[in-house]
Amino acid sequence: MESNEIVYVLSNAAMPGILKIGRTTQKGVEDRMSQLYSTGVPLPFDCEYAAMVDDCQKVESALHTAFGPYRINPKREFFEIEAEQAIAVLKLLKLEDVTPEIAADLNKGVTSSEKASAEKVKKQRRPRMDFHEMGIPDGSTLNFEDNVSTVEVCSNRNVLHEGEVTNLTAVTRKLLNNDYDVRPGPRWSFNGELLTEVYQATYGDED
C-alpha cells in the first residue's frame, strides 16, 4: 500500500440520513473502529466507503469544509448528506479503495444479535424498493448512470440484465466492478427521473 492513512464514510441505522466522515491510520484502524461502536451508540456502524489517501488530515478537513453547511454539530464529525455526495469527492482523492477492510474491522466484536438489530431497524424505517408500488410496471426500462447500460423490470423487485433475472443492487455492483454493494437508487433512472426521486415520492424517504 502506498499510504497508511485512511478516510472513511460511515452510516448508522440509528441515525438515518446522517453520515460520519472521519480518518485513521492503517496501524490504528482496528482500535479506532472498535471505539466507534461504544455504549453511547445503540447500533453498529456500516462502512459506506473508505479509501487510502496521501494525507488523511487534509482530505478529512477538505470534506468537512465542503459539507460544512450540513454539519450537525461543529464539534462532531456527523453530516446530514447522502453517502454518494461524500463518496464522489473521496473517490477523486483516493489512492486505494479499502472499503471491505474497514467494513471487516467495524464488524469485529459485533455479535450476530447486534447485526440483526441493525437490520431490523433498517427494514422498519425504510421500505424496500418495490417497482410496482413506485409506479414502474413490468417491461419498463431503467437506465444506468453511464447512459449505456439498461435493465428491464420483470417483477416488483427483480430486473432482467443480459438475459439473467437478478436484482438492481447486484447489477449496480457488477457494472461498477465493486466487491461491495452500493445503493442503486442514485445511479438508475426511469423516464428521466432518478429512482431515489421516485422512491421519495412513493414512500417519503430513500431506499
UniProtKB/TrEMBL annotation:
Organism per entry: Parahalioglobus pacificus
InterPro entries: Phage_T5_Orf172_DNA-bd
Stretches assigned to the Bacteriophage T5 Orf172 DNA-binding domain: 13-93
Protein name: Bacteriophage T5 Orf172 DNA-binding domain-containing protein
Pfam family, one: T5orf172
